[in-house]
Write a structure and sequence with these properties.
Layout (H helix, E strand, L loop, with lengths): L8 E3 L5 E3 L1 H6 L5 E4 L3 H4 L10 E2 L5 H4 L9 E4 L4 H12 L5 E3 L3 H7 L12
Parallel strand pairs: 3-4, 3-5, 5-6
Antiparallel strand pairs: 1-2
Length: about 120
């Protein structure tokens, strides 16, 4: 597997490219954050990364065409497991610049990174 040049990535023993949350936060404008959690999680207490796009993992095979390949894609979920699967799915769909956010939203929140919360409905 060739080393990607678009960001400082590391590769797991399972062959999943991962990216550091600090780099993602600093470069939110230059990546597409793809959240693969369920809608209830998206609206839940962990919040979501500002500007993220929601496509639940189970829907990703049929909706991958909705993901723009113009910017690199950073996949995120609650803990990093589903988003690791999403990176594999996206690569199989032909996306080249894809990485997993290890630790997911739990790590993102624990490190105090910015989140958008579900808006209260009136």
């Amino acid at each position: 597997m060739r080393d990607p040049q678009w960001a400082p990535l590391s590769c797991t023993t399972a062959g999943i490219w991962e990216i550091d949350p600090a780099w993602v936060e600093e470069n939110l404008h230059s990546v597409t954050v793809l959240d693969v959690r369920e809608p209830s999680e998206w609206e839940g207490p962990l919040g979501r990364i500002p500007g993220a796009v929601l496509i639940p993992l189970g829907q990703l095979p049929g909706r991958a065409n909705e993901v723009s390949g113009v910017k690199p894609i950073v996949a995120v979920c609650r803990s990093g497991a589903r988003s690791a699967q999403a990176t594999q799915m996206l690569r199989e769909a032909g996306f080249k610049k894809v990485a997993n956010l290890p630790g997911g939203m739990m790590r993102w929140r624990a490190e105090g990174r910015p989140v958008e919360s579900a808006r209260a409905e009136s």
